[in-house]
Hints:
Elements (H helix, E strand, L loop, with lengths): L1 H30 L6 H19 L3 H27 L4 H23 L14 E4 L2 E4 H23 L1 H11 L1 H6 L4 H23 L10 H15 L4 H21 L5 H15 L9
Antiparallel strand pairs: 1-2
Amino acid sequence: MIFLQLCADGLLLGAVYALFSSGLTLIWGMMNVVNFAHGDFVMVAMYVAFFAFTLLHVGPLIFVPLAAITLFMLGVVVYFALVRHVMRGPMLGQIISTFGLALFLRYAALWAFSANFVSLPDTLVGGVYDVAGLRLSASRLLAGATALVLTLGMHLVLTRTDLGSRMLAVSEDRTAAALVGIRPDPMQALAWGIGAASTGVAGALIALFFYVSPEVGNSFTLLAFVTVCLGGFGSVPGALLAGLAIGVIQSLSAYFLGPSTKDVVVYALFIVLLWVRPQGLLGRA
């Protein structure tokens, strides 16, 4: 039962990892742009959730959509103000630009909110549910289930709708898509908006059980890149599979080897997998 409990907790957390990582893989798949500010988008969403609760006294039913809308708008603004101008340049220019954006968001949050750690009440969503002998935290259950549904929904939108077909056409060949009447800029701005909105939902859900601080985006950025690399760049199902696997590995290693080793185990397995399969679990060679 302990093993099953650890796996259940890991799967719920891994679903949230998959949600904010799927936004990164969507942006990469659409534009081949590496967004080093992705984790700081999660940080912004966590602050949106925190201040929505403390100032407006609203719960997850309000602050999760609010964070998604806020981050969607931020993603679109970032595309038109920054990314559109650097995406045709060298990869180094893209990396420096998005890294600079990450620093701007981080230090703006430090200036506005200080470096103090804050958090939402543990009882905001509810207590603990007993499901077939497994004790599941209500906040983690809500976060995991919502993240899983939205990640699968993003995959279906990309693969089963006309909008998804147009976005994928732009990702394959921007010029050819423009010749058949698809405007690349709106599609790519939408990709940035959707990718950022996914971090908005994930960040608001993570804030239910994780501390909030301006520096928290550091760990989420690295985690998102590991998840996307493991799953395969450009593959939303790959990000989902990798996120779930990372959540379970972290949960098991933290219990059996100690909390300080959970990231060491993940990164060690990450190196081994890339040695054996460089394109990731579901990526194309």
